[in-house]
Amino acid sequence: MNPRIIASVAAVVGGAGWVTKAVLAKAGAGADLAGYAYLGGLVTLVVSLAAAGYLLAEKAPVWLRGVVAVGVPLLVLAVWQAVQDGVRAVAPFEGWLRDEVAVLAGGVLAVLLGLVGLRRARPGRAVQAVRGRRAAR
Predict the structure, then answer these.
(1) Which pTM does this prediction carry?
(2) Are 44 and 10 in contact, with CB atoms under 8 Å apart?
């Protein structure tokens, strides 16, 4: 299967899980259910980031693509943790939104980027391979 499609679908599903977590927190649903939505979204977003990282080094050897596929989610998770801590420290919001603004924004962003990726990865849109001087020989 195409890693671009895997990354896009996983981003949409993971983002939807995070948006669901924020909605469940607002509704006052059980903390367990909201926790499962957050964890499920996190796992699928890590899969999405790993597939996107694999695509970053298209011309590299497979072992290097694997290293990048592991490194991208770790980098994004480190940045995410810093952003989440910063939002909690200075958020002007009150109540449930103070804790959920980062999750809600991340979920919406993941869904939007996943939909853009799905639009670009349509099977009908074939990309022409770039050919160099050596390929012409």
Answers:
(1) 0.77
(2) yes
- 33 close to 56: Cβ distance less than 8 angstroms: no
DSSP-derived secondary structure letter, 60:
S
Structure confidence at residue 12 as a pLDDT band (50, 70, 90): very high
CA distance 38 to 32: 10
- Maximum alpha-carbon separation in the chain: 67
Burial of 43 (0-12, 13-18, 19+ CB in 10 A): middle
Q: What does the angle CA 45 – CA 51 – CA 57 come to, to the nearest 5 degrees?
A: 135
* CA 91 – CA 81 distance, rounded (Å): 15
Q: What is the pLDDT of residue 78?
A: 93
Residue 129 burial (CB count, 10 A): 6
Alpha carbons 48 and 16: distance in angstroms, whole number: 13
